[in-house]
Amino acid sequence: MNAIWTLSRRNLSLFFRDRMGVFFSLLSALILFLLYAFFLGQQLIDSLHEQFPQATAAQVEMFINSWVFAGITMITSLTTGLAALSVFVEDRASGRFQDFLVSPLRRVHLILGYLLSTFVIAVVMTLVVLAVGQLYLSVGGGGLSAAHLGQVLLSVLLSSAVCAAISSCVVTFVASNGAFSALSTIVGTGIGFLAGAYIPIGVLPEAVGTVMNALPFGQAAMLFRRPFTADSLDTLAGGNAPAIDTVQTFYGITGSLGGVDLTTGIIVASLATVGVVFVLLGSWRIGRTIR
Question: Any transmembrane segments, and where (predicted)?
């Protein structure tokens, strides 16, 4: 256990020492925030205000801001977990695995060291973004209640674990720093669309929405949106249940797959299953790569 923790600390130190790498791991979240702050946000606010003319501008804006930060938080759990594995790619590209293998370290220690450090980095960075989002929403008169904040924290842990597992498997197919940079760019660009964070899922064709609901990223985003938007949506709709259901479906807060509603329990079970499968695949692939 000491060997695993020592390797994890080494990976954590290498990641956080690269300040530009840390910044770029947050770039997708920053871009999404800027897009809404300067381009898309007002358009969504105006459109939603037309549907709820009885609501104040502040109430509409609070819902949109809460929805946006839910997406930002989910995206961060993926992009930072992937960025954490830059240490693995660098070790592979530099031939450092050979040095590890002639040491007393066992292969399983190396595997668990990479997985643990990836998970820790994803959690830490996502919590930082969550804190910024909570502060931003609180300044605007909103913010998460203690109960909803607790739900978000659990979602952070689950999403970070699943995204770290998926990333650990995918990154084993990358053999150079250049290829890893390209992969990070593609993921950082595409994850906002796959999670329905750039535009509401209700704007997209039904078939596209179904695909997004089937992906773990879309389901994880739902988990974040539910506590993030619960209070602001109730205030916006004045407690009108049909109106709340319509908005939740349009903005990807709720969804269905094959006629089955994606309840919180189903999403958690689905993500946990995906996480276990990719932990096993990732561990196997990392073990084959370390040679």
Answer: 21-39, 67-89, 110-132, 152-175, 182-201, 266-286
